Amino acid sequence: MPAKPRYRAWFESFNNPEERYELDEVVYSDSQGGLLQVCHDTKELAKTPADEWKRLFEERSHRNVWPHGSGVWGKKEWVLPELHSENVVSMYEGNTNLFWAERYGRELGLEDLWIKLCGNTHTGSFKDLGMTVLVSMVKELRARGKPVRAVACASTGDTSAALAAYAAAADIPAIVFLPRGRISTAQLIQPIANGAVVFAIDSDFDGCMEIVRRLAEREGVYLANSMNSLRIEGQKTVGIEVVQQFDWEVPDWVVIPGGNLGNVSALAKGFDMMLELGLIARAPRILCAQAAQANPLYLSYQRDFEVFEAVAARPTLASAIQIGNPVSWPKAVAALRRYDGVVEQATESELIEEAARADRTGLFNCPHTGVALAALRKCVAAGTIHKSDRVVVISTAHGLKFVDSKVRYHNMEIEGVIASQPNPQIELPADYDQVRERMLREIELRFGDGGSGGGGGG
Ligand SMILES: *Cc1c(COP(=O)(O)O)cnc(C)c1O
Q: Model-level pTM?
């Protein structure tokens, strides 16, 4: 018999600490229909000194000792301590690179700007961090003989890609509901390739969510949306990882795009645990960025969060955050209050221009990261974020998942957007003199003095 795990975790009502459930219960909301959260026995965790946790997390990182090499499962005691390691479904998610964006930072007027590339992962978005935890729990439930027929989610594209991949790896049936015609080609082909049952519904995300919620209530399919707080446990590791990558120094600001608002809540939860367990002594501030086309959190922030009203989300190039009725808003509001948060928004033109500007410095941003960067620019201009502040931008997906919008930008095909720096390909016949002449002209035009400063030469 394996020893009883020393650490414990359970579901708890976000509004009522008295109401608790075991993590292997199939339950998504509290008795009043409110959100659940996963709580940990931090008294027990605190018996291990902070330096010991740091050493353990560093020692495990990037190694191949199952399952601790993953950025999520290297922190297993803080994530799902009681899960049997044999039921972990992992593709070595996390441990994504965090780098100094020197040139782009300079353009924004920042000296210490860093990008956390969460899109450099198995399915190309941060959703892997949460999905590894949820699918592992489903594998454990099935191993314990609980009746889980399938896992299902509504998605704006990245959740379904992650669910399909992890479920396929574990041989668990996956069902995904997508708003028809509103996600990128790359996002659509991922669950198709991974063998999920893919429904394209004539509705938006919020409409898909309605359907899947009812199916989860009645038909024995396990709900994989972020109202399922297991996912937050994986996603919260991103903040821990950032701090670990800075040798346990806390940045001044973390910038993150928000749609359903699970990720910003998760970010704060990771910092909560590090503060509570003494790994860090101060908190960062959080800037949450929304698309102006889907901005209920921004509107609420304008009124000091006194009210929160759903909006009808309008189409946006940042399609993964086209959500008008975000499930996790109560957690997000609480998180932003704790972390002296700011909410900013970006229009279509601002988000795609900013992504293009940053791409020019060697990045390759998804539109959601474009939203975050445009919000950052505004906060620097307003003096909210200072020149010398250390700023980390959470880049949520890989730019390669969203080439459709980039192609349209550079071909100047986006309605309502006058591209300021389109860079379409130059089509020429195979004629040396024509190519030479054009090349020299382009260098002169774009780089001024012939690139090297020394002029031409033959
Ligand atoms: C899901 C997603 C978001 C938004 O995260 P929420 O938890 O819904 O706020 C942002 N960017 C990308 C690329 C996403 O896939």
A: 0.95
- Quick check: bond before 67 cis, omega within 30? yes
d(CA 210, CA 206): 6
CA of 48 to the centre of ligand 1 (A): 33
The burial of 21, by beta-carbon neighbours within 10 Å (0-12 exposed, 13-18 middle, 19 or more buried), is given as middle
Q: Which amino acid is at 22?
A: E
Whole-Å CA distances, 126 to 94, 116, 123, 219: 8, 10, 8, 29
For residue 151, give the H/E element and its range.
strand 150-154
Domains of the chain: 98-123+232-410 (3.40.50.1100)
Residue 458 confidence (pLDDT)? 38
From the CA of 332, give the closest atom in ligand 1: 9
Write out pLDDT tens, residues 433-456: 999 999 999 999 998 865 555 444
Give residue ranges with CB within 6 A of ligand 1: 125, 127, 158, 226, 257-263, 320-321, 366, 368, 396-397
266: enclosing H helix or E strand = helix 262-276
Residue 321 Cα to ligand 1 middle (Å) = 6
CA dihedral 373, 377, 379, 380 (to 10 degrees): 130
Query: Judging by beta carbons within 10 Å of its beta carbon (0-12, 13-18, 19+), is residue 242 exposed, middle or buried?
Result: buried
What element of type H or E holds 150? Answer: strand 150-154
